[in-house]
Amino acid sequence: MEGRRAVAVVAGDAVSSLTKEEFLKRADRSCQDPSKSLPSPCIPHGYDRVAQWQSLTYGTKREQLAMCSVLMSEMACRHKFALTKKARTLEEVLQSPPVAPMTNLLECARRADGAAAVILASNAFLEKGGIPTNQSVVVISGGEASGSLYPPPIEDISEHIFSCQQAAVIAYEKAQLGVNDIDYFGLYDCFPICMIRAIEAVGLAPLGQGGDYIEDKYNRMMESTTRDNLQDIFPVNTHGGLLSFGAPWEAPALYSVIEAITQLTGQAANRQIRNAKRALVYGNGGIFSSSAVAILGRGIY
User: Fold this and answer.
1) Best label site of 106, 220, 286, 287, fewest CB within 10 Å?
2) How far is 15 from 93, CA to CA, in rounded Å?
3) Mean pLDDT value of segment 291-298
C-alpha cells in the first residue's frame, strides 16, 4: 500500500436474514476441524471446550461467564443502534436454552445484518481536506499472532494455544505503553470465554483471574444506584460488543474500532469515558486461532 494517502476498510455481512438452520449449516461448514471432534454447532462447542478447560484449570465459575452477557446487555441499552434494547438478568442468561455444556443461547454473539467502514488516511490527506490532525485518531501501534487452528481435546489444552496475549505484548511494546495507559478496551466477545481470556491477555486481570474481574465489575454494577457510570466501572465494549450490539460475522471487529474512535473523539454521549486518550482494540479469528491488537490515540496522545 506504499504511496496511498487514504484507504477504506469495509466489512459487511447478513446472517440474521438466514434461517437458524441455514446459518448453523454454513457455520459448521466453515469449521474444518481435521479431528472432527467438535459436535454441531461446532463453533460454540469449540469455545465451550476452552471454557471448560478454563474452569478446570483456574476455577472460573459458570456464573462469571454469564455475567459477561449481562454486562454487555447493559452497555448495549445505551447505544441507539444496538440490537439489544433490554438489559438481561443473570437468571435469564443462565436459564436460556443450552447450546453447549457451559454455553447458553444468550451467551452467543447476537446474529445481525450489518456493515462497517473506517477510513485510514495520511496527515497530508487530512490537511488537504481541511481536517485538523489534532482532532483525529491515530494508530499508535499494532500486534498480530496466531495459535492453534482448532482447540485440542480438553486434556491437551495449554496456554501455548492462545495468541491474544502475544499480540497485545507486541502492540504494547511498539507503543511503549502498558495496560494502565489505556482508557478504553474494545475486546472481542463472541462468547464469554473469549472476553474473559482477552481481559487476562491485555493485562486487566492476572492469568486465570478474568472471571473474578468480571464478577467484581458485575457486583459493582449491581450495587450502584444508577447505571449511568457503568463505563467508568467497566471501560470495555461500551457499545455492547458481539454479545449484545450485534455480530454480522465479518464486521464486528470493525464495530469495536468505531466505538474506540467514538470514545476518543468524545462523541459517545451517555457512554462517554471521561478524558479518553488511548484505546486498545482486539479482534479474534477462528476459535482463538489468530489475534490482532491495535492501540489508538487521540490527536496528541
Assistant:
1) 220
2) 22
3) 98
